Amino acid sequence: MNSLKIVIPIVVVITITMIIFNLTQNEISEEQIEEFENSSEIESILNKIKTDKLDNDNSDKPYIPKEREWITSGPFKIDRAEYILGEKIFINIEEISKTTKGQMVFSKQINNTHSYTYKKIPFDGSKSQQNFYLGLNLNPVRGVCTIDTFVGDWELIFEGTNFESLKFKVINQIIPGMEKQYKPVC
Fold first, then answer.
1. Which residue has the higher pLDDT, 131 or 30?
2. Are the beta carbons of 77 and 89 closer than 8 angstroms?
3. pLDDT confidence of 24, banded at 50, 70, 90?
4. What DSSP character marks residue 158?
């Protein structure tokens, strides 16, 4: 009778262990299948990158990113004076006084008297500031239908401050592989 009291709990423990082991193996198998499916997606993305690189290397004007120049106005910096379509504008805000507040206005110059405001981004010295990237993207809802909206002279204005604006240019060249993103949308 005493041996039966010992054998039954051992059998129960072994049974529970086997059930847990089987369930764990099924989960691992499903994860491996998902991982395999994801690896084929990754492989197709890598193949696209390789193809785009070859296209770039063999093009008449291969894309080679320029070195960062860091154009500054007070605590504000942008990384270049000239961008091509598909490059992001990197904005760096160094320490600003806690009382400095305003908006960064990204504006494309149309002529000597008119400009197009693409985006306004607020800044506030009393809050922690972060560096960020700004991409120029076509958007039919906002009426940005063709690359003509982007190509030309731009100005980054710091409304609410006495800081001088930063001027930069966007040229009519697209990073290889991003041509689809800049096809007319309206």
1. 131
2. no
3. low
4. E
Sign of CA dihedral 18, 22, 27, 31: positive
Give the C-alpha distances (Å, rounded to integers) separating 27 from 39, 103, 146.
18, 51, 49
What is the residue type of 76?
F
The two tokens of residue 124 are 């506030």
Residue pointed to by tokens 């010295």: 125
Considering Cα of 30, then 31, then 36, then 38, what sign does the dihedral take?
positive
This prediction's pTM: 0.70
* 112-to-56, 136, 166 alpha-carbon distances in Å: 36, 22, 16
Could you report the per-residue pLDDT of 50-71, keeping only the tens digit for each?
888 888 888 787 888 888 999 9
76 contact partners, CB below 8 Å, separation of at least 6: 91, 92, 93, 94, 104, 156, 158, 163, 166
Give the integer Cα–Cα distance in Å for 106 and 145. Answer: 17
Q: What is the pLDDT of residues 154-173, one digit of tens each?
A: 999 999 999 999 999 999 99
